[in-house]
Each structure stands twice: as C-alpha cells, then as structure tokens.
Fold this sequence. Notes:
The chain is α/β, with parallel strands linked by helices and about 180 residues long. It has helices at about 5-15, 35-45, 75-80, 100, 115-125, 145-150, and strands at about 20-25, 30, 55-60, 85-90, 105-110, 130-135, 160, 170-175, 180-184. The protein contains 6 helices and 9 strands.
Amino acid sequence: MASEFAVRYAIHCVRRGGVIAYPTETVYGLGCDPMCSDAVNVINHLKGRDARKGLILLASGLEQLDELIDVSDRNQRATIVGEPEPTSWIVPAKDNAPPWITGGRNTIAIRITTHPLVIRLCDQLGHALVSTSANPAGRKPALNPLQLHRYFDGLVDAMLVSNHNCSGRASKIRDLASRQLLRK
C-alpha cells in the first residue's frame, strides 16, 4: 500500500494542478482535479486522447459529485451506490460541469470507487478525481507498477502503487436514465 507520505504528496500535487497515477479497482489510472482544465489537458496529451471523449470521475461518495451531477432521485442515487461491481454511470450533468469533463455533452460519467487508496485520496481531497486508464492511446492499460512506470515514469507529478490488485477488466458502463448497459 502507498505510504502516508506518498498519499499526502499526491494530494499536494492534485491541489497544485498536477497529474497523478494511481490504482483503481480495474486498472491503473491517471487523475487530477476535475476543475483544473490545464491538468486535464496534460492527461489528454500524455495519452494522445481526444478531449471530446469526456472523462470519468471517481468519488468515494455521491456527495462529492453533487455540484456537477443532476441526480436527486433517491432511487437513482441508491442504484448508483448499490452497484456491487465496478460500474461507471452516465448521468445528467449540471450546467456548471466543465466541458473538458463532459466532452461537451449534457451528461457526465461517474463511478463510486471501492478501492481503499482512491477512497483515501477522494476523502482527503474532499472531491472527486478525474480517472482515465493509464496508457498511451493504442496500448493496453497498466495493470501493475512496472507497466505504469514504463508508460509514465517522469511524466506525471506523482505515482501511487498498491498491493491491492487491479482486476484488468474495464468497468461496466450504464446509462442511468435508461439503465441500458453501454459496455460490459
């Protein structure tokens, strides 16, 4: 597990507009403060990623997303929080949701994390994190620290590693309004 110092340093980097790499339930991810467009641009550049795709936000609880998402129905909120496996949800975005996160759409992708390290990060930051797989376009996502270092050593502000294994399977993606499964 990442040391307390490493976690504090990563939080410091995010607060100063930096980009971090960290493990999630599925793969290693690249992340930053979702309100920092410069950091999002760095992530898109590192990955060779089209900014119009939008990004997923990881949070430890829905309250960290309430300023950006328009989900007030209790049943819908319970559905999001109650999903037993990693599932990203496409939900209505509020008007103030940044276009660099939504990809210019009126929806936003979110996931409530169960990864202990990501929960610590979000709780200590007090907000959600951008999350996109840690890989250059066309390459497989990093599943372990060695792959992560091969892709991004010296290119991100902080790297967190964990002995909590990444599953290697992408999260499901569901549309909240229709409950349609968009990716298995």
